[in-house]
Amino acid sequence: MIAKLTGRLDETGEDWAVIDVNGVGYLVFCSARTLSSLGDVGDTARVFTQMQVSENDMRLLGFAAGEERDWFRLLTGVQGVGSKVALAILSALSTAELREACARVDAASVARANGVGPKLAGRIVNELKDKAGAMPGTAGGGVGGVAVATPVGGASADAVSALENLGFKPGVAAQAVARALDELGDGADEGELIRVALKKAAG
Questions:
Q1: Residue 150 — pLDDT band, cuts 50, 70, 90?
Q2: Residue 203: CB partners within 8 Å, gap ≥ 6?
Q3: Is residue 3 predicted with pLDDT exceeding 80?
Q4: pTM of the model
Q5: In a domain, 37, yes or no
Q6: Which of 23, 17, 9 lies closest to 62, judged by CA?
Q7: Which of 133, 165, 183 represents a domain boundary (last residue)?
Q8: Torsion sign (Cα): 176, 177, 182, 183
């Protein structure tokens, strides 16, 4: 699976970019926030990626930060939220705003996104309200009620991805890694984080 791309920004559109990596152009669909962060055509661009495959479509999604990708995965786990709707939400709200909206069960804020009606917005915040605080890069997932902020990218983001690949839901994986980071400290390497986080997630 393609997890990250670094190359020359070749072309952009309303919701996509082409990144040239050693002569191969990758079409990645992105939120407006990610597109605006990529720079100008010809610049070096880096995106974290997620592959989506369905019966009649296959697409690569690109994200400026691992945190945005984690939220994309969480959003698309909600019934009725496909990749286009998830990217629209991530275009309308920053990950911090989205976390706050879910924590407060603020459907109106989520409904600001194109294509998201009040009913779907309500379903999103209700399903994600208990998971929002455990997302990487946000407060939550601490031990004994103490909030832990998991850094975006680096070993912690890779550890979250590893747990998700083992079948854990994004919110569970993020919370387990946050707890492991709290126990091991910021200098923990990826292997140690995964080992401890697995115990936390399975416990």
A1: very low
A2: none
A3: yes
A4: 0.66
A5: yes
A6: 17
A7: 133
A8: positive
Of 55, 53, 62, which Cα lies nearest the Cα of 21? 62
Residue 23 resides in a domain: yes
Whether residue 81 contacts residue 45, with contact meaning beta carbons closer than 8 Å, is answered with no
User: Per the domain annotation, does 142 fall within a domain?
Assistant: no
> What is the model's pLDDT at position 139?
38
Estimate to the nearest angstrom the gap between the alpha carbon of 30 and the chain centroid: 12
| Ranges 33-37, 142-146, 147-151: which has the least confidence | 142-146
- Checking DSSP bridges between strand 24-30 and strand 58-63, what pairing results, if any? parallel
Residue found under tokens 């879910």: 102
| Residue 48: predicted pLDDT | 94
Q: What H or E segment, with its residue span, contains residue 122?
A: helix 118-128
| Cβ pair 173, 135 in contact under 8 A | no
More confident position, 41 or 197: 41
Query: Above 90 in pLDDT, residue 75?
Result: yes
Q: What is the extent of the structural domain holding 197?
A: 154-202
Count the alpha carbons within 13 Å of 139 in the hemisphere toward its beta carbon: 6
